[in-house]
Predict the structure.
Amino acid sequence: MTNGCEKKFERFFGIPVDKCGQVLIISPFFGAKLFSAQLNRACDFKGMLFHGVSGMYEEKKVTFINTGMGQTFTADCVLAQNAQKIKAIIFLGAVGALQDLNISQGVLIQEAFFDSDFFSELGLLSRQDQALRFGPDPELSIISRRIASEQKYELEPARVISINTLWQQEPESARPFINRGMQAVDLECAFLYAAAARKKIKTAALCYVSDHLIEKPFWTDFPPTERSSLQNAMKKLAEIALKITARISE
């Protein structure tokens, strides 16, 4: 990484690139408080685009980065990393179910597709003749599911399509996705995996089901029991991610 890139990295993240752990946990909306309470010598950082916390977990350095929602920030967070230093990236997020998944259920994103139809509807031409899909590192997938099982929280493999809008996420938009065999929608995973593939960084996306596009979209009211189960799912994924970082850093 050149001096110019190092300076840009520190400006964007608020932390020098050499102060990050070898395994990163990143998320669009998981809060740093979920991690700082479990880290020794925790130190917060905040840059122009990203913020988070870095500290020690089981004598291993851990860095959590909040990317903010959306594919651009998530992809930029990955593209900014030094591939010679970073062993792996664990992404924590949420998906909206289309079929075969229940609210608060844990999933490991096995296949993530780009929503090329969205660009066509806007009149933007696509040079791709077929749907692009990306997936996690196989070894990291096995480790993630094994640790999740040890923590009594199963991660089911899932196929998602990364959409480009929340406003147009309506129940009637679900049918075309279901016809293509998708189980859920999200905003970031296809871009995350594509950026990781470009950088050759091992990556796995672990998510929980936050809503159901047809039966209970995210803007509807959830009863207290479901809100509690969603909060518990977030906490469980945070714990699993920390366990993964310790295992990979060994």
